Amino acid sequence: MADGLRRLVGAESGRVLQEKLESWYRDYEINSCDQNLNRCCEIIELNSEIQGQLFTILNETSQEGGHYAGVETIKTRLLPWLGTCFSCATSGRLFETNLSLTQDSIEKERQLRELASNQTFQLQELQEELTSTRLQLNHVQQDLAKTQLALEDTKTKSTTALLAAEDEIVQLKAALKTSRAQEKDALRKLDRLNDYEQQIQILRDEISILDAQKSVLQSRLARSRSPSPRHSENKPLSPLTLRSCSPGRARRTNASRRACLVARFGDIYAQERLDAETLLRTYISDMEMVQRIIYIAAVESFHAAKMAYRQFKIRVRDTLSLGHSGPESLEDTVLDYIVRHEDLYDVQASVNEVIRSMNINPKISFPPEIDFIVISTLIRELCRVAFSMQTLAPPLDIAFGTDGELFSETKYHRSFDSDFTAALVAYHVWPALMENDVVIVKGEAVTKRGAVWSCRSRSRSRSRSRSTSPLLSHHVSPS
């Protein structure tokens, strides 16, 4: 039974019967009467073959159950159906043979149809793929043609641009060569013009000097043939009479000189002051004393430079007043002369004066074997800056400061080791720069509590000797 049922399932007769029924149903309206009858007979034959197989399976199943197995089922279901549908039954062996042949033919027909449909489908796919490939090939060929055209166009444009660029480079080189030649010619002319102007200025200076000398000689001849006592006592002013000046220069350059001097004052605070501080620390361990020495050196340098400027200005005024003539006032002429001849300032004399003042200052002390000459570099730079600041209009000066004064935020910064809650200044580190009582550059001060008592105790300290060290005596010129 199992073998017959397996063959029936494997033959797929039921599916074939269903497909035939569906196919007949689709084509029923377009088929002729004979075609519909043939389809109907074909389906009946296939159905009979399936029924034959089922009856064989029924026979085998009933034999496996014994003589009386399934009797009730056959009586109640099979016999009534057979009485109404069939008059007799064919033999099992002949029916099975016919069914097998029918199944084989149906299977072959199904395979043929599937093979034909598969081949048709594959052929359609190949045709579609071939068509798509041809379209892609056409597109690629078109893109290739466009690319070649664009490449040719680009080559043509690049060649043209390269030729134009080469021409332009040649032209630019020629223009550059011409410009350089013109620039050299202009520079030569400018140099010659500057030389002419310098020669003219020298001639004018010489004429002014000669006029001044002429006036002096005439005045002396008018008075007497012998020199007056006043002129015999003064030092000769030959350095002053050898040079002249350009009137109005000092006032024209006042702003630029002021900016440079303020910047230089800040550089001295940032560089030379620190160098001097490092040098003094090798001899003095007290940092407060080192800072006091530097501050007093700055104050004394400005004082000495101002005194030297006043004396220098008096000498220049006396000399130029003898032959002064022109639209500029005598004061402007004197100021212009000092600005142009600041190198005549004897800065070493001011340095020596500062060191003498520091030696007798009771607020600072120094080891006896070493002198303040060790910080002469700082003092010299401060004297030069202070002297130049006196030529400004208005002149610049440092702020006056005393120990124990009330701390001013507008004048000073507090040092890092200060007591920021203290209101009094213990001592100053660096002076503030002033212009008509207006602070331009803040100084630096140390604030501590009890600053007044500290100042009083330091005022009782022993002052240094007025005698100078051999180093200082070597630098001081004899009067």
Molecular structure report:
This protein is mostly helical and 479 residues long. The chain is built from 15 helices and six strands. It has helices at residues 2-11, 13-27, 33-64, 71-85, 92-223, 229-233, 238-241, 249-252, 254-281, 287-320, 330-340, 347-359, 376-389, 451-459, 470-475; strands at 397-398, 412-414, 425-430, 433-435, 438-441, 443-447. It is elongated and about 180 Å long.
Main β-sheet: number of strands, strand sense, barrel status? 3 strands, antiparallel
Strand content: under 5%
Total count of helical runs of at least 4 residues:
15
Tally the beta strands.
6
Could you tell me the radius of gyration in angstroms? 63 Å
Order of helices and strands: HHHHHHHHHHHHHEEEEEEHH
Kindly state the mean pLDDT as a whole number?
80
> Which class of secondary structure composition applies to the elements?
mainly alpha
Q: What is the topology, as strand order, of the major beta sheet? A: 1-4-5
Shape by Cα distribution: elongated
In whole angstroms, how far apart are the ends?
A: 153 Å
- Spans of at least 5 consecutive residues with low confidence: 87-92, 225-247, 455-479
Give the % helix. Answer: 55-70%
